[in-house]
Fold this sequence. Notes:
This protein is α+β, with helices and mostly antiparallel strands. It has one domain. It contains four helices and eight strands; from the N terminus they run ααββαββαββββ. Strands 1-8-3-4 form a four-stranded antiparallel beta sheet. Strands 2-5 form a two-stranded antiparallel sheet. A two-stranded antiparallel sheet has the order 6-7. Strand 6 and strand 7 form a beta hairpin. The two termini are 15 Å apart.
Amino acid sequence: MNIFEKITMKNLILFCFLLLGGFVFSQTKDSIISTEARAEYQGGDEQFKKDIMKKFRIRKVHGKGTFVTNVRFIVERDGMVSNIKAKGENESFNKEAMRAVSKMKPKWKAGMINGENVRCYFTVPLTANFSD
């Protein structure tokens, strides 16, 4: 039995649905309070959701139940992602969420104010149900 047979369609659909829950945008003292344009993933939010799902290795998450984590990272002025952190109750889910974000290759389009790129924090809530 391969990994795809072990993952039920119900769990995969639930994971996809909950991943589409949304993005949260925030800034810190290093960033400007309001931006003309927020940082954006190449291809937009929908492409980000697809790409993180491709990179996420479900088999690396240990335990059963519903897990929630908030992945927070900085989109730098050059579009690179840095300072990736995840906060949630399941450590393996947190680690895999951070790894998935770090493996995403396309650069982001940096946030802008007054025509200049600024550093921006992004928080992405992820929820998945891992049950038989």
